[in-house]
Amino acid sequence: MTVPGDEPPAYPIGRECPYRPSHRNTALRERGPVAPVRLYDGRVVWLVTGYAESRALLADRRVSIDPHHANFPVLSADMAGLEDTGYTDVLIGVDPPVHTRQRAMLISSFAKRRIDELRPALERIVDDRLDEMLARPDRTADLVSAFALPVPAMAICMLMGVPYEDREAFEKPARALFDPDPERAEAAVAAMTAYFGDLVDQKTARPGEGLLDDLIADPAFPVELGRDDLVQYAMLMLIAGQDTTANVISLGMMALLRHPAQFAALRDNPALVPGAVEEIMRYVSLIECISRAALADIEIGGQRIAAGDGILIGAGAANFSTELLDRPEEFDVRRGNRRHLGFGHGIHQCIGQNLARLELELAFGGIVRRMPGLRLAVPESEVPTSVTGPLERVECLPVTW
């Protein structure tokens, strides 16, 4: 891709504040809704920062999610080669018709009605974790290890029929999936593949309850849906269903504690919590950009994207656009705008969004209700964070109450 004019700015730009995208996105948007940027490896791709343009391209069949395209954008060295591990062979790295078939196999398990049936069990998970925290005599805890990690992990394990007590077999490998050392990343994939392969074999011999068991019972198994497919489904759903939600809980709580009036609003009016989840998803913008490749020439945002060009949908920038809402820089839990791009858009919109919304609603609602005096136990600047793959992480969030 050759772009005339000034040298494109480097991208991604990182965050000054862990719980929201950089203010420097404003300068990127001012260059136009579609403009070139340069990646870490020197390649130039299109960055889409306009809200309307982002939604349009996410729904456009002329763009591909397949990372095997030559110019498919990779944001960092630790994400290079991920397409060769098999992790992207299910949903997040395949186009129709393969994606259509895969999504159809799973969609009923994540339908809102079925997820709503899990509410009592998820409420118990949240309350049990809060009970354990509140029982601590020193009235301090690490919100990440005590709550943000176990709640979504237990929820997705329950949904899938994966024993939560086996978590050591998949939690550490899941974190190592984006290790910049290719040998460690490959070892992590191998460990997870072996674990889930054994689990699928056990469930095939002795069916139980859970999404994996439902898929094994499907008439398509093992003719159209094979053992290897189930292993890939399990890896994707467990990593995506646990990691993303855990980080939204941690970062969302940082944002609420940094804006005590917003925390107080939720505490005083629980009816605001479902809408607050939408504002937290927008404001945190956990996955700031979404990679695509053009399959055909596309005219959009005053630019011509040529077939084969790499595209980055800047969801984080678009979520802070005045096209979406007024005063986007403000964090306001009373808004509840569901048109944000926190769950993506189009045919690849997050299949687990109903589960994530319910988990987040119960998590934030439970905390403000049962821990109304919650506050950080250390200065915000001392909260350790990191970036692993596409995700901003809070490693530890010391709190007191």
UniProtKB/TrEMBL annotation:
Keyword Oxidoreductase carried by entry: yes
Key words, A-Z:
Heme, Iron, Metal-binding, Monooxygenase, Oxidoreductase
TM stretches of this protein: none
**What InterPro entries does UniProt report for this protein, alphabetically?**
Cyt_P450 (IPR001128), Cyt_P450_B (IPR002397), Cyt_P450_CS (IPR017972), Cyt_P450_sf (IPR036396)
Identify its protein family. Answer: Belongs to the cytochrome P450 family.
What is this protein called in UniProt?
Answer: Cytochrome P450
Lineage, highest ranks first: Bacteria, Bacillati, Actinomycetota, Actinomycetes, Micromonosporales
